[in-house]
Amino acid sequence: MADKTPPQKSNAPYAARIDPTKEGLSQDQMHFIRQVELEQWKRRTSKLRTRNVVTGLAIGALVLGIYGYTFYSVSQERIMDEIDEEAKRARMQGPKTSAN
Prior knowledge:
- This protein is an all-alpha fold.
- It is built from 3 helices and no strands.
- One of its GO terms (cellular component) is mitochondrial inner membrane.
- This is Cytochrome c oxidase assembly factor 3.
């Protein structure tokens, strides 16, 4: 990714890409380049960290929402209670035999 060159060359000196190993820069210039690259890296990683935290919180909220909704909907289901009540009514209304 660092080896890619811009599609067209710019005449602006601030946009020109240089290869520090081939340009013959002084130690001070190399040190400055390293400092600038480090600051850019720190800035990018802080933005990425923030974005990752926001994404993680959004996914966590979605999971908790689905989990909560599932518990809420299951707690409202009365299917088994209704089946038990129907079976009890059927037993009460059915014929009385010695097997009951």
